[in-house]
Amino acid sequence: MIKTLLQDEWRFLTFRPMSQAIRTHWQAYLIFGLLFTWLAGIGRYWDNPRGELWQYLGLGSVAYVFVLALFIWVLLAPLRPKNWSYRNVLLFLTLTAPPAVLYAIPVERFMSLANARTANAWFLGLIAAWRVALLVIFLRRTGGLSRAATAVATLLPITIIVFVLALLNLEHVVFDFMGGIRPEQRTGNDSAYVVVYVLALYSFIAAPVLAIAYFVFVYLAWSRHPR
């Protein structure tokens, strides 16, 4: 079972169909995904001086994935994708966790602070792009959405999530860039935080357009297949 699970995870991360084992042993896949979600959460904050205790323990990432799954499930349900359930969305999100272990690489230990910031920004971009690509495949292959609907279903949750995270200022630094950060407060993650801040600005601009397109596709989905 472990061998099958690891092979399926590799297939999933390389955009290939998984075996039927995920249907009959979905609990094992969920535990595997939650384990990596927890490890990724610990790795993200273990060397961050601005983290809170619950973040150091990885509890924030585990709680976040359940909330995120609920958000995406509810938001995209009106588009009427196929095989759409909270369990399937949660499974998908947890199985995207392994690449996030890149955050645990202590680049600050063997790089200058400037290079560490660059490396962490690249890690953030790589993991984000990888997960977005996986979401596109999930919505197309499992959800059966059209290409245009998939584009909206992919971008709208991302814009909302990025903007909300920036507003909540969960990293305790996003808005500090507007006023400057003292030298003793700088970390190797600062460039990644700048990326979040810039994405939040673009999300604010794109959200109205995506919202209009979203309601258009909701109308089309229900008019074609009314219940």
Give a structural overview.
This protein is an all-alpha fold and 227 residues long. It has one domain. Helix content is 70%, strand content 0%. It contains ten helices and no strands. Helix 5 (59-76) crosses helix 6 (86-95). It starts with a helix and ends with a helix. The relative contact order is 0.11.
Describe the structure using short key phrases.
mainly alpha; 227 residues; 10 helices; 70% helix
Characterize this entry briefly.
With 227 residues, the chain is mostly helical. 70% of the residues lie in helices and 0% in strands.
Helix content: over 70%
Beta content comes to under 5%
Structural class assignment: mainly alpha
Number of strands: 0
End-to-end distance, in Å? 40 Å
| Overall tally of structural domains | 1
Mean pLDDT, all residues: 81
Contiguous uncertain segments of 5+ residues: 170-188
What's the Cα radius of gyration? 19 Å
**Tell me about the biggest sheet?**
none
Task: Note the total helix count.
Answer: 10
Helix-strand pattern: HHHHHHHHHH
Write the layout of secondary structure elements.
Layout lengths: L1 H12 L7 H4 L1 H20 L7 H4 L2 H18 L9 H10 L11 H4 L2 H30 L4 H22 L21 H35 L3
Helix pairs in contact: 3-5, 3-6, 5-6, 8-9, 8-10, 9-10
